[in-house]
Amino acid sequence: xxxxxxxxxxxxxxxxxxxxxxxxxxxxxxxxxxxxGPLGDALESDKVKLAVNGxxxxxxxxxxxxxxxxxxxxxxxxxx
Amino acid sequence: MTATKLRCCRLxxxxxxxxxxxxxxxxxxxxxxxGPFTNANPGLGGVAxxxxxxxxxxxxxxxxxxxYAPLTLAGMEVLADQAFARFDLMGLMLLHRVGVMYPxxxxxxxxxxxxxxxxAIQSVDFAMDHLKSDAWFWKREQRADGWHWIxxxxxxxxxLARWN
Lengths: 80, 164
What we know:
The complex is a heterodimer.
Chain A (H helix, E strand, L loop, with lengths): L2 E5 L2 H6 L3 E4 L3 E2 H7 L2 H8 L4 E4 L2 E2 L7 E2 L4 E5 L6
Parallel strand pairs in A: 1-7
Antiparallel strand pairs in A: 1-2, 3-6, 4-5, 4-7
Chain B lengths: L1 H8 L8 E7 L5 H10 L6 E8 L8 E6 L1 H18 L2 E9 L1 E3 L4 E9 L2 H17 L3 E7 L2 E4 L4 H8 L3
């Protein structure tokens, strides 16, 4: 089943798709390793936040996701 | 349900606050919501409403607003909690469009009802500043050469700082 990555906003363009399945369990270093190029750069930027199953992480390095979890990559919001 | 009923029946309690927090995925007529919202707040002293529409900027043919379901609506509920805590409100309505919109279409409608005008007016201002800069929406606009993501603006932070 794996972990579902969800790319919001322009990160979906960088990823080439709004979602991607990735092997579980997933921690921060595995995610950094899995995402290359501009998407990887964006992930490591302070402006991009992570949420696991709808809960925002205060520290991205604390990421840990299991089978069936959803990890969202959230770029800065552009306002309503 | 039981808890709601108990709250309603408690003799010492005032009227329950009216909350209407929604994401809308199709064009809407603000008046169709503001009327019933106003009627749901009997005894109000004032109701303030702001409606934002898609501006017909040069070259922009459409606007798309994306959201993330697990965060966006929950964040709007937290914003409503903050408004109720900060102002003396009877009711608050936050309506926000998502999806593709065209110039002239409503994108947001905030309405607040209170006993005294300033709480209604200020809570609408407060909610709008937060919806514009601190809510989970991503926006892109369509021009002749395709879609372009809108980056956050510096003024958004200044708008938020007004309420610190």
